[in-house]
């Protein structure tokens, strides 16, 4: 159905925009990646596939690939299992405290898992708080090796960090379902479970799929969490190790290229599955009223479940907070002494202050770039038909399949000794661009999903009334997808603040360090290092919370839309 | 199935949507809820369907109290204004849905779906998706989807408002035909008075959450019980005046700026000197150009022609009676042709065609 409406022609300005986009993608994505690909298939003797063979011959790399798949699949399923009931409860039911809870469940998304991992290690260590507490309570008599393999720890931390992404996708899918579609099922006699299975869930599928693919790829390419847990046998860590060994290793490049091809295939396949346009609502759905009222007992159960989820999700970060103020913490559930010393030391430390300033600047700049690029790309994809449309789509989605460290390393190779962008001289432009590109797919997806569910007739009505392209975009299209966009922008900002891999690789001089690099830098310092890292992590988290509260204040009533999505 | 509402009321926050609705819909009746948008008619329908819970009052289907019966157990069939066809299911799957819910075996299901689709003349469209159908076709599928489960009551929420004019008139006949064929109770919500007048067995006229009047189309049109009812249905020419006296024959005499108007309606409720309005329908008025027959008319008001619109099957004249008072008068095409170019005219009407209400 959507195809029928697609405008065949492109205006001159749109063509110009496309050209600029193409140049941008070429310079900052294709060219660096090409360097990697070329490195993977060329040897002194010319083209070769031998590096791929050596990937599969290497038992360690083979195991890493299998592990990465297992890890990301498990994380995705756990995330979905958490988010489905959560999103349903918080959009379709009405109970006391719902507003607060719907805001609170998003908090783990902006809590850096990389920082959380530091806390998690503390809590789940052999003689960490959880074991000690359980032993004191007499539940167990010997400490449990929670982190023995690292797998469980990484899954738990990833799932607790990523479920809000899934949740947001599901909520926006739910909000876009015209309530009369469910009423119709109810009217025909379908009870709650059947209605959900036959009407609600199928109509949510674009959202479910969008959520799953983001979470899957995120988990697959996550570097920070397993790094802190020391879970080494994973694809990203193998790549990171090869790079940090300082030698350009074609086997590592081949590994990257394999990941690239794999994820690309997933996306092409998924696009085919959901591009039939049947999911376009004939009318724009609105959340009717506040949902169904539930009784006191169910409210209590809901509070208990969501509360437990939040507790679990925030436990690592709480323990980071504890760590940052702990004077002595050894073999006890809670620290013995408290101190503000690390925070005051942070203040005297010029590096930490500047890194916070840096991070705020980098993240804001990249979020602005992302919104501008994301809206443009999504609009082109959803509404126009042109040669190279599929290419643009692929380009916009490619960063999902592009581990940040590979992109960053590609930048180092491609732009070192260049006159304008040399990261050794000033990595700021490259850092901002890396952050933007890394998070571009999120906002493109968010905007595209919104556009797909907004019937083009709304825009046609505006053209019909004499409005131009930009006016229509500004007054009709953007407001209709604003909840998707705002959520996308906040996501971009938060993730840029927490970006680990590109930060570790690209920020080569201390004066340009973002928060994450400084945390990693401090974490590896002997002595007060981990405590200092925790303190900075706490500061970073606080800053993030403040930023989001400020934007909530600026947006006023619309913030509800952001959190309801 | 008979439907009985007792003192049904619903508020959304401070806004009163429905207030004290009490009436009965007979078994097999084609019953209309008519009113301007925002009058609460859709809320009333959704209360009957069970999608929302009333604050006060009772709903009975037959003798069964339905207040606590969830919507999926009420066995009503609702046709939504936007049809609400599930975009991810084919026409067949859409229509089949209610039968699956009712665990009808597959062979029977297939037959019933085919029957329902042919009842609405959509056989052969089973494998299409709703997005591939026109508005009228979607409408028919939406009807088939609820008819197939043999509901006790069919609820229709402005079902024709999204169709083009010609199709709308066709679908009126179609829905009437289906109603006659299956003979169940229809509760039909619309803001289109022509739809209501032409189709209904009875109409409940709603205004600001209240039931204004209930009656057959003829009663509603010719004997409106309130100014709102009179002004909302059809067209009315209001002529302001003052109540003077009652004659020996039981007629009321109203003094207007243009002279006296005689009204057949006995005006017990008015006191002498009270400001009133005389309401006369355009088709109850006639324009005459000669003065010699005027004496035999019950009411004749002098005026000048101020406008004329050719409407094909008739002509519509605008007559300026006095400062500010303009009336609309319908005329047959031949009459219209004769009057068209005149200037000074008389508007005449019978005393029994005047409706009196307080100003």
Could you describe the 3D structure shown?
Helices cover 74% and strands 2% of the residues of chain A. Chain A is mainly α and 565 residues long. Chain A has a single domain (10-19, 60-275, 290-564), classed as MetI-like (MetI-like fold, Orthogonal Bundle), CATH 1.10.3720.10. Chain A is globular. Mean pLDDT of chain A is 79; it is low at 1-8, 281-288 and 557-565. Chain B is an alpha+beta fold. The longest helix of chain B is centred in the middle third of the chain and has 18 residues, at 165-182. Chain B folds into two domains: 3-232, Rossmann fold (3-Layer(aba) Sandwich); 237-358, Beta Barrel (OB fold (Dihydrolipoamide Acetyltransferase, E2P)), CATH 2.40.50.100. The mean pLDDT of chain B is 89. Chain B has helices spanning 41-49, 91-101, 106-119, 135-147, 165-182, 193-199, 217-222, 227-232, 333-339; strands at 3-12, 15-25, 30-34, 56-61, 64-65, 76-79, 153-157, 185-190, 202-207, 210-215, 237-246, 252-256, 259-263, 275-280, 286-288, 299-310, 315-322, 325-331, 344-349, 355-358. In chain B, helix 2 (91-101) runs parallel beside helix 4 (135-147). In chain B, strand 9 and strand 10 (210-215) form a beta hairpin. The two termini of chain B are 42 Å apart. At the A-B interface, helix 10 and helix 11 of A face strand 6 and helix 2 of B.
């Amino acid at each position: 159905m959507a195809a029928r409406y697609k405008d065949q022609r492109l205006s001159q300005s749109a063509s110009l925009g496309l050209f600029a986009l193409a140049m941008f993608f070429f310079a900052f994505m294709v060219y660096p990646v090409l360097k990697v690909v070329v490195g993977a298939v060329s040897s002194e003797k010319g083209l070769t596939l031998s590096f791929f063979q050596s990937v599969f011959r290497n038992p360690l790399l083979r195991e890493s690939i299998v592990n990465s798949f297992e890890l990301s699949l498990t994380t995705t399923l756990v995330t979905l299992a958490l988010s489905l009931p959560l999103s349903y409860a918080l959009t379709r039911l009405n109970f006391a405290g719902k507003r607060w809870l719907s805001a609170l469940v998003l908090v783990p998304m902006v809590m850096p898992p990389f920082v959380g991992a530091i806390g998690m290690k503390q809590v789940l260590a052999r003689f960490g708080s959880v074991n000690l507490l359980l032993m004191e309570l007499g539940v167990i008599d010997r400490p449990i090796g929670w982190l023995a393999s690292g797998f469980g720890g990484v899954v738990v931390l990833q799932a607790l960090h990523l479920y809000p992404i899934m949740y947001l996708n599901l909520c926006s899918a739910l909000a876009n379902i015209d309530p009369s579609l469910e009423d119709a099922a109810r009217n025909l006699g379908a009870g709650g479970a059947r209605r959900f299975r036959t009407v609600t869930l199928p109509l949510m599928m674009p959202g479910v799929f969008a959520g799953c693919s983001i979470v899957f790829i995120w988990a697959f390419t996550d570097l920070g969490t397993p790094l802190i847990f020391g879970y080494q046998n994973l694809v990203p860590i193998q790549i990171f190790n090869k790079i940090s060994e300082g030698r350009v290793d074609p086997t590592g490049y081949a590994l990257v290229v394999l990941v690239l091809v794999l994820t690309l295939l997933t996306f092409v396949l998924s696009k085919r599955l959901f591009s039939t346009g049947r999911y376009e609502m004939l009318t724009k759905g609105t959340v009717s009223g506040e949902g169904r009222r539930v009784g006191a007992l169910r409210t209590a159960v809901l509070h208990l479940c969501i509360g437990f989820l939040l507790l679990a999700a925030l436990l690592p970060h709480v323990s980071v907070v504890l760590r940052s103020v702990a004077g002595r913490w050894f073999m006890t559930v809670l620290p013995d002494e408290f101190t503000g010393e690390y925070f005051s030391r942070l203040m005297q430390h010029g590096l930490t202050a500047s890194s916070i300033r840096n991070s705020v600047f980098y993240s804001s700049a990249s979020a602005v770039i992302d919104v501008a690029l994301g809206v443009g790309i999504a609009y082109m994809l959803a509404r126009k038909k042109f040669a190279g449309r599929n290419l643009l789509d692929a380009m916009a989605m490619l960063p999902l399949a592009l581990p940040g460290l590979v992109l960053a390393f590609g930048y180092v190779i491609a732009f070192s000794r260049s006159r304008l962008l040399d990261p050794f001289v000033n990595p700021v432009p490259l850092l901002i661009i890396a952050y933007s590109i890394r998070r571009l797919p999120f906002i493109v997806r968010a905007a595209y999903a919104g556009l797909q569910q907004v019937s083009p007739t709304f825009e046609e009505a505006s053209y019909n009334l004499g409005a131009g392209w930009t006016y229509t975009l500004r007054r009709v299209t953007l407001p209709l997808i604003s909840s998707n966009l705002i959520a996308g922008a906040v996501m971009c900002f938060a993730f840029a603040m927490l970006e680990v891999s590109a930060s570790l690789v690209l920020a080569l001089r201390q004066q340009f360090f973002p928060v994450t690099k400084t945390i990693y830098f401090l974490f590896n310092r002997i002595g007060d290092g981990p405590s200092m890292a925790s303190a900075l992590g706490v500061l970073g988290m606080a800053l993030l919370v403040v930023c989001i509260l400020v934007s909530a204040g600026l947006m006023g009533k619309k913030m509800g839309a952001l959190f309801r999505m | 199935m008979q439907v009985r509402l007792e003192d049904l009321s619903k508020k959304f926050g401070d806004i009163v949507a429905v207030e004290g609705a009490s009436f009965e819909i007979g078994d097999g009746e084609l019953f209309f809820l008519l009113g301007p948008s925002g009058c609460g008619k859709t809320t009333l329908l959704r209360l009957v369907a069970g999608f929302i819970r009333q604050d006060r009052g009772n709903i009975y289907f037959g003798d069964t109290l339905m207040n606590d019966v969830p919507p999926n157990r009420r066995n009503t069939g609702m046709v939504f204004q936007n049809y609400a066809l599930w975009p991810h299911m084919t026409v067949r799957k859409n229509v089949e849905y209610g039968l699956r819910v009712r665990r009808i075996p597959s062979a029977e299901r297939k037959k019933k779906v085919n029957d329902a689709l042919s009842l609405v003349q959509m056989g052969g469209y089973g494998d299409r998706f709703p997005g591939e159908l026109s508005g009228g076709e979607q409408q028919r599928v939406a009807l088939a989807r609820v008819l197939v489960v043999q509901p006790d009551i069919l609820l229709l929420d402005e079902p024709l408002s999204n169709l083009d004019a010609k199709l709308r008139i066709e679908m009126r006949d179609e829905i009437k035909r289906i109603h006659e064929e299956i003979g169940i109770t229809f509760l039909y919500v619309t803001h289109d008075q022509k739809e209501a007048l032409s189709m209904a067995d009875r109409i409940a006229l709603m205004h600001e959450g209240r039931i204004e009047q209930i009656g057959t189309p003829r009663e509603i049109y010719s004997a409106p019980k309130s100014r709102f009812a009179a002004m909302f249905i059809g067209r009315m020419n209001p002529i302001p005046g003052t109540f003077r006296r009652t004659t020996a024959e039981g007629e009321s005499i109203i003094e207007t700026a243009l002279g006296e108007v005689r009204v057949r309606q006995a005006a017990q409720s008015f006191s002498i000197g009270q400001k009133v309005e005389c309401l006369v329908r355009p088709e109850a008025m006639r324009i005459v150009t000669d003065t010699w027959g005027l004496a035999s008319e019950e009411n004749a008001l002098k005026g000048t022609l101020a406008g004329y619109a050719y409407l094909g099957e008739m002509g519509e004249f605008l007559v300026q009676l006095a400062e500010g008072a303009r009336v609309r008068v319908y005329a047959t095409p031949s009459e219209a042709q004769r009057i068209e170019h005149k200037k000074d005219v008389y508007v005449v009407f019978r005393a029994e065609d005047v409706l009196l209400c307080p100003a």
